[in-house]
Amino acid sequence: MKNVVILGSKGALGGQLLKLYPGATGWDREDADVTDFPTLRDKIAGLERVPEAIINCVAFNDVDGAEDCPEQAFLLNAEVPGELARIARELGVPLVHYSTNYVFDGVQGEYAEADAPAPLSAYGRSKLLGERRIAECGGQWYVLRTAVIFGPKGESVLSKKSFVDIMLDLSRKRDTIQVVADEIGNLTYGPDLAEATRRLLEGLPPAGIYHVTNSGCASWFDCAKEVFRIAGRDATAVPVPATQFPRKAPRPARAVLLNTKLPPLRPWQEALAEFLAGSRP
Ligand SMILES: NC(=O)c1ccc[n+]([C@@H]2O[C@H](COP(=O)([O-])OP(=O)(O)OC[C@H]3O[C@@H](n4cnc5c(N)ncnc54)[C@H](OP(=O)(O)O)[C@@H]3O)[C@@H](O)[C@H]2O)c1
What we know:
Blueprint lengths: L3 E4 L4 H9 L4 E3 L9 H9 L7 E4 L8 H4 L1 H22 L3 E6 L9 E2 L10 H16 L3 E6 L2 E2 L12 H11 L2 E5 L3 E2 L2 E2 H14 L4 E4 L6 E2 H12 L4 E5 L15 E2 L10 H11 L3
Bound molecules: NADP nicotinamide-adenine-dinucleotide phosphate.
NADP nicotinamide-adenine-dinucleotide phosphate binds next to helix 1 and strand 4.
């Protein structure tokens, strides 16, 4: 499969997908208004070659910001994916969409694909509704739940820095850095997630929800320590509770995605080492 449409192609993940699919049609904010549904449908259906798949990386990703503007979060994270599912079904092609471990409340700690979601935040609720809109629509849909993407930044000027880059930046300025130690989840290297998406589209397993992250789990503190160790930084990570950094949106304390359906990805530490070896911190 070569001829795919990638929406959000200037984001962190979209950029990695575009590298894997050099023949793809990549659209970002300036190329297509994803909230203008009739125009979006005509634009996709009117492509010279009907795409073989639609991959949606557009999202409202500001977890705290979603508490202040839930309408925008629900539009981008729920209604847009629902519309893309309708377009994909009409064209008879698969849709890949990405969701998050924040659809879970963290009480159970570890979650398989079929476990019942219970989001704590507006962001989590909007992403969960997106999953449901897609599933209701039917067709050949894939929702890939992932968590904490790191890796090369997206091309978009608005593309936010990953946690790994924030830690690298802080380690240039400070000797000790306080990092939350009681929130635990998975980590996902953008290029690995892009490659897992490509494999999924080659294999076309049954439609449904899949958990795709690097193997293993970590707290923000564990991750920061590993970043400093691999990058050879002198900075010391100091573990602190999440209550030390009050934020608008509540986060699950331990929402670790278990991948029970696809071949596992390599451990996050290995992927992190590859990323840090290739970047110039
Ligand atoms: N990043 C993570 O840690 C993480 C964790 C769990 C799940 N996910 C999910 O993984 C997927 C990919 O995330 P990502 O980190 O690659 O996201 P990202 O870097 O924020 O990229 C999102 C892309 O969508 C574009 N976009 C936003 N609003 C748009 C609009 N109204 N019209 C058209 N384009 C618009 C953005 O453009 P602008 O830059 O111009 O806004 C950006 O290029 C998302 O579904 C996200 O929810 C991400």
